[in-house]
Structure formats: C-alpha cells, structure tokens
Amino acid sequence: GVYDIKTRETGILSGHAALSLEGECKLNYLSRDSEAAVGDLIVTSGEGGVFPKDIIVGTIKEIELEGSGLSLYGVISPVVEIDDITDVVVLTYFLGQGSSQEETP
After folding, report:
1. Which of 10, 18, 20, 40 could hold 3 in an S-S bridge, CB 3.0 to 4.6 Å?
2. What is the DSSP string of the chain?
3. pTM
C-alpha cells in the first residue's frame, strides 16, 4: 500500500510487464475524481504491516483512465534505479509490523 503525500489518497503499487521495461511501476485504484497529479511524491502507507510507513517510493509520471473506466491509475517513476543499487538495509522489525494482519488460531 502507498499514498500520495500531497492528496493523502491511497492505492496499491504493483509491477507491470510493459512499464517494467521502462523501469516504472503502476499505482492502482485511484478514484475517478482523484486530485493526484504528475510530480506528486508517493510513499509507503504502512498498512498491512509489511513495510514501514513513509518510505519514499517514487513520483507520478502519468495519470490514466483504467480500461474499465471505473478508476484511474498512475505510472510511477521510482526514486532509484534498481539496477544501480549496490547496498541495501534489511529491516527485521519495525513498530506496527504485522499489526493489520489477522491472527490465525
């Protein structure tokens, strides 16, 4: 889950075969009346407890109408070139980790 820093609108970031060739990804489930705009900063929402909140992901490059006509999607340019990454940090715990996941008996 991610959100737009300016508008606070949320969506789901996913890979997309055609966009990945350009090093981009897709922001799904923006409402048709979304005020998200080209250049807006996209960060992790922290929802679901998988990633910490407010990690910068990228910026909106384009906003398009989904084929169904029911919602919009954004084309996201990541803030880093994945192929250029040489060092990473592995988070093994963060506040809120797993908090939204249902517990199984």
Report:
1. 10
2. -EEETTT--EEEEE--HHHHTTT-EEEEEEETT----TT-EEEE--GGGSS-TT-EEEEEEEEEE-TTSSEEEEEEEESS-GGG----------TTTTTTSPPP-
3. 0.81
